[in-house]
Design a protein that fits this description.
The chain is mostly helical. Helix content is about 75%, strand content about 0%. It has helices at about 15-35, 40-65, 70-95, 105-110, 115-120, 130-150, 160-180, 185, 190-205, 215-225, 235-250, 255-265, 265-275, 275-285, 290-335; strands spanning about 5, 210.
Length: about 350
């Protein structure tokens, strides 16, 4: 990792192999929730894959491309809220019909991205539990936006700040674990798990221009998997393991062409595009008992994911982004002083 790539570092284009990365991540979550897993928890690793990808993409958008913060948050709203609102509305109706136990506080905190802290005192609800990771992501995006805003007006290195905050968040988790904190009480907290997103953002900003051997991203990823086996202590999983996975993500574009073609294949790209909707809808149906229940549940979750993506997620995102662009264009054309 000693020689730098030639030429200036530009923002990332849309890369199909990143959709493939999302596909592998969501398949890990599905394998964990719908199949019995031993030795390693593929769901936790899949969430970690989502986290490091989010860190890389948000760093590229905020620090390299320097997207305006109003546009950034507008696009985040368009990306996250429509499908989430549709999912939570369906869950509210299901809860009202007695299909799943829940109260309005759990649904409200899920919609306001405070669920991961609310459940520390109020207790978890199985069909909403996955919202904790969305809370961590949205909280960390605010932190990254604040760092980007400050770094644009100063000589502060965004990459160093991100890695420093990641170290603090990791230390918080390690201390809480050593003091006897349980997994859900420690690693669902943003002040702990933001480390994964921040370390990926920092690694991307500081190390993305370095050339590495083509085998390095694969070796880093495989080693990260070994650090996620169940006997490995949680601080090592989400410290060394997450750092290795973040570097694998940063250097993924330098992997062998055959690997990138596989990740960028049409089936994986299609699954990756559906990954957010699939993540939302898989959780409640994973609660169905028995093999038949799981098979039916997985089919229902996939069907609803496809419906959500094409009927809600994609058209709503396009519409909301267009509205934000209209407002932005109108404000730029408005005469000064009006």
């Amino acid at each position: 990792m000693s020689s730098k790539a030639n030429g200036p570092s530009l923002g990332l284009p849309h890369l199909s192999y990143l959709d493939g990365w999302r596909a592998v991540a969501i398949m890990g979550v599905l394998a964990d929730h719908y199949l019995a897993s031993r030795f390693i928890n593929p769901g936790r690793f899949g969430v970690e894959m989502f986290f490091v990808l989010s860190g890389l993409l948000m760093a590229d958008i905020l620090f390299v491309k320097q997207m305006g913060l109003p546009k950034f948050f507008g696009r985040r709203i368009a990306r996250v809220y429509p499908a989430l609102f549709a999912f939570l509305s369906a869950m509210a109706i299901a809860a009202g019909a007695g299909l799943w136990p829940a109260d309005w506080q759990h649904l409200l905190t899920a919609s306001t991205f405070t669920y991961n802290y609310y459940v520390l005192e109020a207790g978890r609800v199985a069909f909403l539990d996955h919202v904790w990771s969305l809370c961590v992501e949205e909280h960390t995006y605010v932190i990254l936006a604040a760092i980007a805003a400050i770094s644009r007006r100063s000589q502060m290195s965004g990459g160093i700040v991100c890695l420093s905050l990641a170290a603090l968040a990791w230390s918080d988790g390690a201390i809480r674990t050593l003091l006897g904190g349980g997994y859900y009480d420690v690693y669902w907290r943003t002040d702990v798990r933001a480390a994964s997103i921040l370390m990926a953002a920092g690694a991307y900003l500081l190390f993305r221009s370095y050339k590495v051997p083509s085998w390095a991203p694969i070796a880093l990823g495989i080693t990260a998997i070994f650090f996620n086996f169940e006997p490995v202590p949680d601080p090592l999983k989400y410290g060394v393991g997450s750092a290795l996975l973040a570097l694998a993500m940063v250097y993924l574009g330098q992997a062998p062409a055959a690997s990138l073609r596989l990740l960028g294949s049409k089936p994986l790209v299609a699954i990756g595009m559906l990954s957010y909707s699939m993540y939302l809808w898989q959780q409640p149906f994973a609660q169905f008992p028995g093999i038949i229940g799981r098979v039916f549940g997985l089919g229902a979750a996939i069907a609803l994911s496809v419906l959500s993506y094409f009927v809600v997620e994609r058209p709503a995102r396009r519409y909301i982004n267009n509205q934000f662009e209209r407002i932005r264009s109108a404000s730029m054309l408005r005469p000064a002083g009006l």
